[in-house]
Amino acid sequence: MPExxxxxxxxxxxxxxxxxxxxxxxxxxxPTEDILYLGDTARVPYGNKSPETIIRYxxxxxxxxxxxxxxxxxxxxxxxxxxxxxILQKESDIPVIGVIAPGVQAALSATRSGxxxxxxxxxxxxxxxxxxxxxxxxxxxxxxxxxxxxxxSLVEEDWLSHPATHLILEExxxxxxxxxxxxxxxxxxxxxxxxxxxxRVLGSDVVLVDSAQNAASTLARKLMTGGLKRAPSEHSGxxxxxxxxxxxxxxxxxxxxxxxxxxxxxxxxxG
Length: 271
Ligand code: DGL
Fold this sequence. Notes:
- By secondary structure, the protein is of the alpha/beta class.
- It has two domains: 5-98 and 213-267, Rossmann fold (3-Layer(aba) Sandwich), CATH 3.40.50.1860; 100-211, Rossmann fold (3-Layer(aba) Sandwich), CATH 3.40.50.1860.
- It contains eleven helices and ten strands.
- The chain has helices spanning 20-29, 51-67, 78-91, 100-110, 122-127, 129-137, 150-156, 163-178, 195-202, 212-225, 250-258; strands at residues 10-14, 35-39, 72-75, 96-97, 115-120, 142-147, 183-187, 207-209, 239-243, 264-267.
- Strand 3, helix 3 (78-91) and strand 4 (96-97) form a beta-alpha-beta unit.
- Helix 1 packs across helix 10, helix 2 (51-67) crosses helix 3 and helix 8 crosses helix 9.
- The longest helix has 17 residues, at 51-67.
- Bound molecules: D-glutamic acid.
- Residues 14-16, 18, 44-47, 77-79, 121, 124, 152, 188-190 line the site of D-glutamic acid.
């Protein structure tokens, strides 16, 4: 007998391990759901690639996830959400959730002054996806957007509290301080791991938001309204982590992003 639709896994993908910060929030909110995660480590980073390339990669990953019968997909990558989300949504008959709208909602609920900073990859910042959505909800918002291409490598190197990371953050976040933002969106899946350092640079009055929790709640709502949520049970959700390349540090990093032991890690081919 085929598996009931509700018992099928949720798919999630990112250019690498960063999207596991979103999966972590999904696990907290939806502990009985199975998750199939794909990190496109063979082709990371996405942040400096053209929109056409990101769209092609994202479509290939969707095909892979759909071939494993996922019931919904979370695009757990800001760059892929910025360039490919609307296309993937148009081409799919299952819910496809990105991380940008959830990040924008988090920022708008946090800000008091309407001065918001966005820090992300080159691709995310240049796409203006965050800026456009923020202005759509709040035309008067004052936005300071900064591309911070070095931060992904620093996180991958595990330089989370390294003095060099502090210096680089000082440099990238200086325009935010000058603009006296009261809220900063960490618009890249890697950045939540730099939250403590960024907070030190910006000061404790600035609220740092990321999309993970809001993306997980958006997913939970979509599953509920679409009748796709797993029926209440004792089942404890399993995570299968796939990657298009398995560098030696992958499982260590994956565990750091995920906040738990990463059991089943497999290398797969997409495209
Ligand atoms: N996952 C990407 C993002 O959230 C960051 C890493 C990359 O550049 O691929 O934008």
